[in-house]
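Input/output pair, single chain:
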Amino acid sequence: MSNNGGGGKFRGTTARRESACIKRANDLAAKGLYDEAVMLIEQAIALSPDNTAYYVQLADIYCAQHRLDKAVDVIKRSIKLHPDDLSLREMLLQLYLEIGRFEDAVREAKLALKLFPKSLFVRELLAGALLQCGRLDAALRAVNELIAQDSTNPSHYFKRAIVFQQKGDLSMAMQEFSRVLEMDPDFDLAEAAKEAIGALDGFQLRQIATLASEDAMFYAKLIRDPELAVAERGFALSVAGLLTLKQIDFQSIPESDLNLQRYYH
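Output:
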């Protein structure tokens, strides 16, 4: 019984020491004395190496110092102790993306998805990392898988529109941006979707104007049936873009002035 009592007393003493270290570390960090705070949190970790909260707190301090590589190392230490902690893996992924280690983010995301295949957040981060790496086909697959799991979130379709835009598939990009507006016109990304549609229209209208000045056959078709003429050449204008196209008098546009912004409302 005396041994058990001694063990309980030791654990109580250790817990008090940890608490004192963390409290003092918080006070120092609040004053901007980060190096001193780091030393105290490391002391707390030495006393309780399984406490993930201490690692996260230490990583947060390194982030406050803009020492993100150190924050990565700390979270990786914690993941080795707790490989099944999804929140730690998500934090590591976000750090990788923030410091531009996109291939590392891809590898970590794929590993996390093996453990947590239903994690939408990890799948979102994977799609973003693949896009940053320029791996557009893989990014599209990742977004498609995201949509398969969560088909009612407009932000996923916005991501797919971005991927299509990067791939140069303006027709599909236009379709996905328009879908975002249809799904939720008051959604946070709705305004960004509107701007993207306007930008795609403007880009294509300038291309159409240039082509009309160089191709007599296209120009003639454009005058007769503008909607058919642009569709035959693979252009994909929105409804507003088509209305704008029909309002433009291409004969009156000087070849040196192909900025059509004033025609677009």
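DSSP finds 14 helices and no strands in the chain. The chain has three domains: 1-82, 83-151, 169-265.
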